[in-house]
Amino acid sequence: MSFIENKRKYRIGILILLIVLFVVIIFSCSVGAADIAIADAVRIIFKPYKYKGAMHSVIWNIRMPRVLLSVLVGSSLSVAGVAYQGLFRNPMAEPYILGISAGAAFGGTLSIVLGITNIIGIGGTSAMSFLGAVGTTFLVYNLGSHKNRISMTYLLLSGIAISSLLSALISLIMIFNREKLNNIIMWTMGSFTSANWSKVIVALISTFIGVSGIYYFAKDLNLMLLGEENAQNLGINIEKTKKILLILASLISAIAVSVSGIIGFVGLIVPHAIRLIAGPDHRVLIPCSVLAGGIFLAISDTLARILAIPMEIPVGVITAVFGAPFFIHLLIKSKRSSASI
Fold first, then answer.
1. Are 286 and 215 in contact (CB under 8 A)?
2. Which of 143, 211, 262, 334 is most buried as measured by Cβ atoms within 10 A of its Cβ?
3. Class of residue 178 by CB neighbours under 10 A (exposed 0-12, middle 13-18, buried 19+)
4. How far apart are CA 274 and CA 101, in angstroms?
5. Do residues 55 and 40 touch, judged by C-beta distance below 8 A?
6. What domains are defined for the chain?
7. What SS3 string covers 206-246?
8. Cα–Cα distance, 250 to 96 (Å, whole number)
9. CA distance 90 to 142
């Protein structure tokens, strides 16, 4: 069936995802160390000017920024995963494949160890992690390109090599700074405890730009699934498209990591799951992945908050619990497909 023939199903799917996202946001704002009745949460959210006091403060100053930030980060990582999987033509590609997570972790670790976090605040760690992620992406990009042409194979190998190097450096830093080990581990495992409206605005702008830009190239991604040579014959400027998509996907991934820490598997399992349900058409895959990624990470963060009250589990642990088995499933399925050929 063509995209036009599937338009009705596509609209119904988007509507269902929007409803689920709305329900998740309301529920996430109502649960926590201080439980708030869902009816009260709905009233405070839709008529905030009528309510003041502790519940209003909890929802609008603490929970709502956190929930919205988790939705935006999940959306960013998911759409970046769609772009990477399309570029590499591999369902096991994900946003951190180019060393973005390792670069961000290295920058965040340096911030904690050098005391930048104590001087500037948690924003200092976010800034350093963003610089680390962008610097690593720039380095990997230059190692993986030659004469203005990008080799996806060399790009992947460069990402693996740089990630390994940075991971080793982080381990060394942790060994020599044991008193700050807990802070480093908590940040590198991902958390939204420092969420605020400023971070929400930054994430909203980057998500809007990134999603809009990547969706603009949805048709090009569809054609690239046929192979770079075939796409070129159909009029696609392959090198230009790859550069723009890599920049957009890497930028929104870097910003997402800088405001939340390292949260794995979101950009891997969400796009692949949506692809299994909705098919490979990126005009459908991208919007659905944006909504599904936000839902998945918002639910994961809510579980991280409520499973061990008054303590909190890093959200990266929750996503890994879901993601690791799914990744193993992909590996087994890939092996069986290869064996049947």
1. yes
2. 211
3. exposed
4. 23
5. yes
6. 7-334 (1.10.3470.10)
7. HHHHHHHHHHHCHHHHHHHCCCHHHHHHCCCCHHHHHHHHH
8. 9
9. 22
